[in-house]
Amino acid sequence: MLSILDLKHMKANKEKISMVTAYDYPSAKQAEQAGMDMILVGDSLGMVVLGYESTVEVQLEDMIHHAKAVKRGAPNTFTAVDMPFMSYHISLEDSLRNAKKLFQETNAQSLKVEGASDDILILIRRLTEAGIPVIAHIGLTPQSVNVLGGFKVQGKDKDAGQKLLDDAKKVAEHGAAALVLECVPKQLAAMVSQSISIPTIGIGAGVDCDGQVLVYHDILKYGVDRLPKFVKSYADFNDHGTEALKAYMSDVKQEKFPTDAHSFLAKSHDSLPDTE
Question: Is 256 assigned to a binding site?
Fold first, then answer.
């Protein structure tokens, strides 16, 4: 399993970091078998696998439940877990308590928090000092989508870009182990990556980040209808899965399944009970 130090070495050596967002045992198992560097148990599970409208509805217990499944599927892969909406915004004491619960019960290697407000910076420092590595997340932060006015590219003008660059430096200075950059211009993401010592993981932020993250279901086009501009799918499980289910249904209707090859057969008629 990679460590925080390994990830920093990868950045220093210009070795790209691969990360996938996964939510359950089978997807995590596949990610580990594929040799993925990192897995993120994202609160996007609310929309992707629970059918919620946004990440705002996700609870701490949801994250714990799914993260434990992921760790069972990928015990040897560095795993980060999102702290969900309002689990780290009420008070520092509550935030630390929730982080402790999430970190201990999931056996994760890191927690991820969104934003770079003064309160978040203090939390990053306190968690890091307590032995919980933190991955920061700036740019488009889905938990704040209602404040941001929707899922929009961030840092598009000079002032906004400067703030994002300043925020990146602040989270690094306060001890963040890595930084997710979501939906920011490619050139700005490159500037951020060059300006801080911790690895940057991009999603919709261009190739110059130190690593990339996409959602398992987007990569495989599995159960998703629309894909953001920044997603590249490498398979189409929607079509393959639907066709497979149709073929199964047809075989059932036509009594082509199950065949004797998929059935348990008595050794002889003498071993069967009488019907009279």
Answer: no
Confirm whether residue 243 is marked as ligand binding.
Answer: no
Is residue 175, in this structure, part of any structural domain at all?
Answer: yes
Domain assignment of residue 135, given as a range: 4-235
| C-alpha distances out from residue 254 to 236, 240, 243, 245, Å | 27, 21, 16, 14
Asked if residue 44 belongs to a known ligand binding site, the reply is: yes
Same domain, 256 and 139: no
pLDDT (0 to 100) of residue 182: 95
Residue 268: the pLDDT is 87
Whether 104 and 164 map to the same domain: the answer is yes
Q: How many residues would you count in the chain?
A: 276
State the number of CA atoms in the 13 A half-sphere of 145 facing the CB. Answer: 15
Does a structural domain hold residue 252?
A: yes
Whether 192 is in a domain gets the answer: yes
Summarised one tens digit per residue, pLDDT across range 23-49 is 999 999 999 999 999 999 999 999 999
Domain count, the chain: 2
Q: Is 93 a catalytic residue?
A: no
**Six-digit token pair at 166?**
């300043």
Catalytic residue among 105, 129, 182, 243: 182
d(CA 187, CA 165): 12
pLDDT digits (tens, 9 = 90+) for 101-140: 999 999 999 999 999 999 999 999 999 999 999 999 999 8
- Note whether residue 63 is domain-resident: yes
112 is in an annotated binding site: yes
- For residues 196 and 256, membership in a common domain is answered with no
**Intra-chain end-to-end CA distance of the chain, in Å:** 64
